[in-house]
Amino acid sequence: MARPPGPPGAPRCFGALSTGQLRALLQDEPRLQRAVRLSRKFQALQREREEQLAANSALARDNLALRPRLEDGKAALAIKYQELREVREACRAKLRRLEEYLEECGPQRAVGRLRAALDASEAEAEAQMQRFLAHEVPLDAFLESFCRSRARSHVSRTQLEKLQELLQKGRDPAEEPPGLSPAPGRGTASPRAL
Questions:
Q1: 95 close to 137: Cβ distance less than 8 angstroms
Q2: Greatest pairwise CA separation for the chain in angstroms
Q3: Is residue 165 in some structural domain?
Q4: DSSP assignment letter at 15
Q5: Region Disordered: start and end of each range (predicted)?
Q6: Which residues contact 6 (CB under 8 A, 6 or more apart)?
Q7: Residue-number span of the structural domain to which 118 is assigned
Q8: Fewer Cβ atoms within 10 A, N terminus or C terminus of the chain?
Q9: pLDDT digit string, tens, across residues 104-114
Q10: Angle at CA 111, nearest 5°, toward 108 and 117?
């Protein structure tokens, strides 16, 4: 025998109802909805749903409040990227200028300029000597200018020789394969002779 149903419209457990009562309950839509609304599980789910909606609403408000900060951050980041591009281009331009300067002022250019200065001072000394021999300049003027041009020539020659010596020293280790340099105290004997 089936248990008597609880208060109308809010049975504690649908399992306690007979099949006929369940069919009658299914046919009575308002009573079924009222029973579902009054069930503890439904009420707990309803409360949980409302809490979730409130939490979502609070999160949405917080997110909307952060939006201006996000937009400001994006704008600041875009400005920083633009500054980075400008700095990168400035660095590249400076690097190109530095490479051009190094190419212009490189060791071989310096050797060429020193050779040109040496040739010019020697040509000047030779021209002064020719003018003196042709009696175009007096002895005192000739000696003064000739000494100056010979001093410039000597300085240029010394600088040229030192620079060439430094360049040669810098080149020697790179040109010699490892293991072929003569051992200390053995002179310059070839590897086969050793």
A1: no
A2: 155
A3: yes
A4: G
A5: 167-194
A6: 12, 16
A7: 106-172
A8: N
A9: 777 788 888 88
A10: 145
Considering the domain boundaries, does residue 147 fall inside one? Answer: yes
| Listed residue (106, 81, 99, 120) closest to 163, CA to CA | 106
**Rounded CA gap, 161 and 150, in Å?**
16
- DSSP-assigned letter for residue 60: H
* Residue reference for tokens 């994006």: 74
Contact 21, 9 (CB under 8 A): no
Question: Are 30 and 8 contacting, i.e. CB atoms less than 8 angstroms apart?
Answer: no
**pLDDT score of 182 more than 70:** no
Per-residue pLDDT, averaged over 29-44, amounts to 78
b (16+ CB within 10 A) / e for 148-183: ebeebbeebbebbeeeeeeeeeeeeeeeeeeeeeee
Q: What is the identity of the amino acid at 111?
A: V
Q: Is 83 among the domain residues?
A: no
pTM of the model: 0.37
User: Is 11 part of a structural domain of the chain?
Assistant: no
The letter for the amino acid at 173 is P
User: What average pLDDT does range 59-74 have in this prediction?
Assistant: 92
Tally of CB atoms within 10 A around 125: 19
Instruction: State the total domains in the chain.
Output: 1
Residue 58 CA to residue 60 CA, distance in Å, equals: 5
